[in-house]
Design brief:
Blueprint (H helix, E strand, L loop, with lengths): L6 E5 L5 E2 L15 E5 L2 H8 L21 E2 L4 H7 L3 E2 L3 E6 L5 H11 L6 E5 L4 H10 L9 E4 L4 H11 L3 E5 L16 H17 L3 E7 L7 H6 L5 E11 L4 E10 L7 E7 L2 E4 L19 E8 L2 E13 L7 E3 L4 H14 L7 E7 L11 H13 L7 E3 L2 E2 L5 E2 L4 H10 L4 E5 L11 E4 L2 H8 L17
Parallel strand pairs: 6-10, 6-11, 7-8, 7-9, 9-10, 15-19, 17-18, 19-22, 22-23
Antiparallel strand pairs: 1-2, 1-3, 4-5, 11-12, 12-13, 13-14, 15-16, 16-18, 20-21
Helix pairs in contact: 8-9, 9-11
Length: about 475
């Protein structure tokens, strides 16, 4: 009797394929890992099917531009990070720690998406009743009528539902729960996630839909699942939690580390409350600490860029004598090499001794700052903490500090000053503008770190501290 299907032997650990069984995988070296697997029908059709159904090339000028159009997710912060909306025929990987709010974000986007088509929510972790309870808690009852729920992780059950529903959006929660017999007997392996994710990505690209794929990032740093999927998708988003807890709820950051259809510099800010995720009304106020009176030493306000928006954040620095033979730098919000470089510049150009100090750096609200415009504010906070001189109130700072002590021009200086003025800051210290017409009124520009410190600490009397060896300005 002639066989009607092809068989191969696939490794359950690395996915290596062999035409016959072997005791040891030649790719990863695991013993007894090759499992008999049937070749999928899609593979057979591509290799042995009708030549008329095979893919063909076409001129780029003949492609309809509407095929690359976007649809709004209904969440402005999510649209900002995606580059303006959900791109059709795209796959988005959403990673984050367990309990961060990935399922809540996907469910709210499924209900608020600006499309007339249906949305398929694939859940391998929750039952249909649990999803309904979550939707009622989020207040999505009137909007959840077009959402189809599929509570299974078996790819053999998901594929017929996709063909029957024909959704425009597919939400898969999560990649770790997807499994198929063709990828090996053990669910949750890297091979299972790669195989099942590839099948879903192929389906949405062929049917003019979009896919959101959630994946867990474990707290101990084991991110093997999402990392292996990053090269398969078009956009990779990471959902992070901030230490900031305000009256509106917990703060969440949505960042893009890969985006084929937009910038990776944008950041989405959400507030997690009883009704789910909401947009922050004024993100700049989330990272400022309102005080009465003078500022304590070691505190500076920086005007930094996060994508297309300007944020004012508070930089906090503490310096203490070293407790061992070497000084150390502790910073979770600003890169350690940047803190060390700014401290070295202060020690070289201002004779401010920092090599015998342990340096602790923090940003209020827990936001991670990577923009170069934070360097001048960081230098001012380091100087203030080491000398004990507080910075004057109502002053915002921005600038890039070079190794020679010079201040380099920064992008969108006028926008930073405008944002600072709108939040009540009457002074702005920074470098000279790149062009003559760019610098608006209210800018106190400095050429180097020495002149910047003179402007910031003019009239201040330095306390007598025996450990400080600061040179004349």
């Amino acid at each position: 009797m002639k066989k009607n299907r092809a068989l191969i032997f696939k490794c359950g650990f690395c996915g290596h394929e062999e035409p016959k069984w072997l005791g040891r995988c030649p790719e990863c070296g695991e013993w007894n890992s090759l499992v008999e697997t049937a070749v999928s029908a899609a593979v057979l059709q591509r290799t042995e099917g009708d030549p008329k159904n095979r893919p063909r090339s076409l001129p780029l000028s003949s492609v309809d531009p509407q095929e690359g159009s976007r649809i709004s997710s209904g969440l402005p912060e999510l649209d900002r990070v995606l580059g303006g909306g959900i791109m059709k025929r795209s796959a988005v990987l959403l990673g984050g720690e367990p309990g961060i709010g990935k399922s809540t974000l996907l469910l709210q986007a499924a209900a608020a998406a600006d499309t007339r088509g249906r949305v398929l929510y694939i859940s391998g972790e929750e039952s249909a009743g649990q999803l309904r309870m979550r939707a009622d808690r989020l207040g999505l009852g009137p909007q959840s009528g077009r959402i189809e729920v599929c509570c299974t992780g078996a790819l053999a059950d998901i594929t017929p539902i996709l063909e029957a529903v024909k959704p425009v959006l597919v939400m898969a929660d999560s990649a770790q729960t997807l499994h198929t017999d063709e990828a090996g007997p053990a669910p949750g392996t890297v091979n299972q996630m790669k195989f099942c994710s590839y099948e879903l990505i192929s389906w949405v690209k062929e049917h003019d839909a979009a896919l959101f794929l959630a994946a867990h990032v474990t707290k101990d740093g084991l991110i093997s699942g999402p990392k292996t999927l990053e090269h398969m998708v078009d956009t990779v988003l990471y959902f992070e939690q901030s230490e900031n807890r305000g009256a509106q709820g917990d703060c969440r950051f949505l960042r893009a580390v890969k985006n084929r259809f937009g910038s990776v510099d944008e950041i989405g800010i959400f507030m997690m409350g009883e009704k789910g995720l909401s947009m922050a009304s004024d993100p700049s106020l989330l990272f400022l600490v309102r005080r009465e009176g003078t500022l304590p030493p070691g505190v500076a306000t920086a005007a930094v860029l996060e994508g297309s928006r300007t944020l004012l954040v508070e930089i906090q620095v503490l310096t203490v004598p070293v407790k061992g033979s070497m000084s150390r730098v502790f910073s979770g919000s600003i890169d350690l090499p940047r803190v060390s470089r700014v401290a070295a510049s202060l020690e070289k150009h201002l004779s401010l001794r920092l090599s015998d100090q342990d340096i602790y750096v923090n940003v209020a609200g827990g936001i991670r700052i990577t923009e170069v415009g934070v360097e001048l504010a960081l230098a001012a906070a380091l100087y203030s903490a080491r000398t004990g001189l507080p910075l004057p109130g109502g002053t915002a700072i921005a600038g890039e500090l070079s190794l020679t002590g010079e201040l380099l021009p920064i992008r969108r200086l006028a926008g930073r000053i405008k944002t600072a003025r709108g939040l009540g800051f009457n002074r702005f210290v920074g470098p000279s503008p790149a062009s003559e017409g760019e610098g608006p009124g209210g800018l106190e520009n400095a050429a180097d770190i020495k002149s910047a410190v003179k402007i910031l600490f003019a009239g201040e009397q330095k306390p007598q501290t025996p450990r400080t060896k600061a040179g004349s300005l």
